[in-house]
Amino acid sequence: MAENDDADRGPLSRGGVAPQPLFAVAAVLLGSFLANFDSRLTTVGLPDLRGAFSLSFDEGAWLSTAGIGSQIFIAPAVAWLATVFGLRRVLGIPSLAYALISLIIPFVHDYPTLLALSVVHGLLLGTFVPATLMIVFRNLPIRWWLPAISIYSIRVGFALDTSTSLVGFYVEHLGWQWLYWQGVVIAPLMGLMVYLGTPNEPVNRALLREADWGGMLLLGAGVAMVYAGLDQGNRLDWLGSGTVMALLASGAALLAAFLINESLVRQPWAHVNVLFSRNIGLGLVLILLYTLTSLSNASLVPNFLATITLLRPEQSGVLLLAYGALPMFVLVPLSIWLLRHFDTRTVVIAGFACFAAANLWGTQLTHDWAREDFAGIVLLQAIGQALTLLPLIITLLSNSDPSRATSFAAYIQIMRLGGAEIGVALMGTWLRVREQVHSFYLGQNLGVGDLDVVRILKQLTDQFAAHGTGTAQARAVGTLAGFVQREANVLAYIDGFWLCFWLAVAALGVVALITRAPPGPFTPAPFGFAKTVLRKCGVQVT
């Protein structure tokens, strides 16, 4: 790979190299990991938060929606804000405010106040991840780009695989308050790293005068409302709820108004023309498919262990930590090496193939599966995560137009955050509906008077009779109903793995449509036999 630091520095790069670039790398690490950890911690730890704040199930659901929805609202605009106001202003002040809000929230007992603080908390958190790529491109030499982007990309899988263990550790040993208080420690440190690792940039008043505030508000609000409708749809019965219908319809109307706005304003902020490039459009589709396919690690495995085997987060988290997170320390350097020497499409195919294999393995699920039976699936998922998202980001960056960097950044943030959260909401609905379908068909097979049903009920009644004949019959019927519900849940999770498998297969088909990226700083350098052949043919190889 070319490593000439004087070459074109690519998209989002207008500043000079920072005097202390290692601090910028540390900011990338802390900011991106904190954002993903915080989102996952509040999601996985929501049952504990409901108990700690004395919230009803509905109140807890809206608390989660408010926090993540506000992240989706602000994330698309962060790249533009950082371009205009500078990275120090966009990340430094929010990091301190975020730490203060994180400190206060555990002491709040009034629900409206808690909800308002959660919205502010999410808005501040939403600024951390989108700006990390800008730190890389503006302040690091080209030879550092790929390792730094690998940190940015691998945070997703690492957070998914470690958050469950971390929730259990906090709740069991330190207290649920640390679900928020970890930000009190990490966010100011991130702000300090940004200050030390990025140059002081003046406000770009020319861009500020041409600001498309309407476009930013319409896109952010539209996507956030669509997410809120989808997130609450599973709980409120979708089209049977006026609230869900209002959120979805309003979000769609705002997105339509955004498209009209971008076609009318003189300086559109995120014009849709940026998506007309073949590789860019297909790359964004692949990121969406990646977020949906990787739900088998984020949702299916831990939820199965919680629902069927009744494991607490700290118990199921051991599996994800040992076989999902820790292998990342080996897989990330391997992914970087592959991208330096092989086409990104080849690496992406290997990653999605691992996802497909893991999900196909998951379709063999039974109620007898214990935690250790998922080790191979989780390990394959970890390999898939390491070999998929990083080369997808490199593919998008290699095909992007630097003059439309902020537009590109807006759409990639929508796919990154909105796609992941909407995917989780839709997977929850898929599992619920499939469980109901399987319960119905299993129930049909338990006809009244069926000899096998009568025999099993008699066996169960005889077992419970030793503890009281009066309740033995009712307990036997209840136990049989529990068996039916358990098997219906298992079948629903099998359907979930099948869904993720076919999404991975679809992703492999989309990869085949992507063409080779133009030469640039991420172009791989052949090695070994291929390098020798090219040199003999007179081709210059770096």
UniProtKB/TrEMBL annotation:
Q: What Pfam families does this protein's entry cite? A: MFS_1
Residue ranges spanning the membrane: these are: 21-41, 61-83, 90-108, 114-137, 144-160, 180-198, 210-230, 242-260, 280-300, 320-339, 346-362, 374-396, 490-514
The record describes its membrane topology as:
Multi-pass membrane protein
Cell compartment(s), UniProt: Membrane
Xref: InterPro entries: MFS, MFS_dom, MFS_trans_sf
**What keywords is this UniProt entry annotated with?**
Membrane, Transmembrane, Transmembrane helix, Transport
Task: Please state every residue range assigned to the domain named Major facilitator superfamily (MFS) profile.
Answer: 24-462
Major location (coarse) = membrane
Q: Which PANTHER family match?
A: MAJOR FACILITATOR SUPERFAMILY MULTIDRUG TRANSPORTER MFSC
Listed name of the protein: MFS transporter
Q: Which organism does this sequence originate in?
A: Bradyrhizobium symbiodeficiens
Q: What is the lineage of its organism?
A: Bacteria, Pseudomonadati, Pseudomonadota, Alphaproteobacteria, Hyphomicrobiales
